[in-house]
Amino acid sequence: MSTAPTDAPSASARPRLASITGLRFLAALAVFLFHIAIFRPFSHTGVSDALFTAFSKAGWAGVSFFFLLSGYVLTWAARPGDPVTAFWRRRLLKLFPNHLVTYALTMALYAIASVSLGTALLNLVLLQPWATGEPVFFSVNNPSWSLGCELFFYLMFPLLHRWIAAVPAGRLWWWAAGLMGAIIALPAVAYAAVPGEPSMMAPDTPVPALGFWLVYIFPITRLLDFTLGIVMARVVLEGRWPRLPLAPVLALLLACYALSLHLPGLYALTATSVVPFALLIPAVATLDVRGRHTVLRGRTMTWLGEVSFAFYLVHWPVLNYGQRLLGEGRQYSLPMGTALVALCFAVSLLLAWLLYIGVERPAMRRWSGRRPRAMAPETARRPTGPPPVPALPTDLRP
Question: What is this structure's pTM?
């Protein structure tokens, strides 16, 4: 297939990735449905098993999507002339206000009685994914472990951005293939290199606990996903994207997800989703570059995408505390269970909206700083010195 140079806009002409914003909510919804499935709210065995089978790998896939997307969006939004410290300030402002509110909420509702002081402090400063034990990295507000990975990614981004910007355009696909291969090979390395015991459930299959941490939690190995996102953004910016139609990418994603349902243990965590997500994000993003209308660009999906980060953080306290109120392990008829799931979704979405308009958006507007003036297009596309650390426009922040 021929490449599409028109998909490589200059720094001053890159459009808002509205479809990506909408797609982001679908990833957060996948994590929500994964957590619903592992709670098994339905008393009907067939319904419960079908729900669990359908979404038992959705959470792993959703987080992998977010890590890839972060690298892609930060690179897409790169602007010259921004100090490293200003970049880090904006990223901390993106992570911590929502995190601190949901952390305090979770601790107040139920977690303070179940975690040690050390674990609570690690969660507070988002260092829990560096701990190898499940009682630590999945403690307090369960999904916030991924924010600890994102914090590490943001610290590394200035270096990675400069490094990958120096890769010749003709070698970018080789780099992408190498990163995909490393992620796919990682489960085999983990099985060979780490002890099999103790084990843990993930969630339906026993896997080596240390192997699970190494493949799925450890920030250094998850940096591979983030770096792949940076490379795929450069593929598009350099005009090397082949305008792959969206339909076959979606078909590949569904096929790989179906495959993950039948793979053992660690292979189902990240290895099956990396290739389709590495193709899906540029395929959707370039639709925005070409001005193509998609359902993801609609007002509703855009709004859902804007509150998706807050939704991702609040849904676990809602589900976990709701289960505690109603009785842990309790199951319901299909109508009642469906109504409770819908109620949890609605409450999570309402709280996410309140968190977004009351905390996230005001913090970003108040302290993120003004966006620096973009360079001329020809200068931005071919900088003469080392590539600068990006400033992030509000509408592109992941």
Answer: 0.88
Name which of 278, 184, 271, 273 is nearest 231 in CA terms: 278
Residues 19 and 398 sit within 8 Å (Cβ to Cβ): no
C-alpha dist (Å) from residue 263 to 33, 197, 371: 20, 20, 46
Pairing type for strands 199-201 and 206-208 reads antiparallel
pLDDT in tens, 38-68: 999 999 999 999 999 999 999 999 999 999 9
- Segment holding 80, helix H or strand E: none
Distance CA 231, CA 142 (A): 29
- Alpha helix stretches (DSSP H) within 213-333: 219-237, 246-260, 274-289, 299-306, 308-326
Residue 20 to residue 137: CA distance in whole angstroms: 28
Angle at 360 between CA 223 and CA 345, to 5 degrees: 85
Cα dihedral sign, 232-237-241-245: positive
Mean confidence (pLDDT) of the chain: 87
Across the strands, what pairs with 200?
Answer: 207
Q: Which residue has the higher pLDDT, 342 or 295?
A: 342
In degrees, to the nearest 5, what angle opens at C-alpha 180 toward C-alphas 187 and 1?
Answer: 150
How does pLDDT run across 229-264, given as a tens digit for each residue? Answer: 999 999 999 999 998 899 999 999 999 999 999 988
Separation CA 280–CA 235 (nearest Å):
13
Burial zone of 113 (CB within 10 Å; 0-12 exposed, 13-18 middle, 19+ buried): exposed
Integer Cα distance of 391 and 84 in angstroms: 9
| Contact present, 277 and 257 (Cβ < 8 Å) | no
Cβ of 101: how many Cβ atoms within 10 Å?
A: 19
Helix (H) or strand (E) holding 199: strand 199-201
Could you give the 3-state DSSP secondary structure of residue 381? Answer: helix
215/222 Cα distance (integer angstroms): 8
Q: Does the structure show a pLDDT above 70 at 391?
A: no
Q: 352: closest CA among 303, 311, 300? A: 311
Q: 326 in the Ramachandran plot: left (φ > 0), alpha (ψ -120 to 50) or beta?
A: alpha
| pLDDT confidence of residue 379 | 37
My answer on whether omega of the bond before 383 falls inside 30° of 0, hence cis, is: no
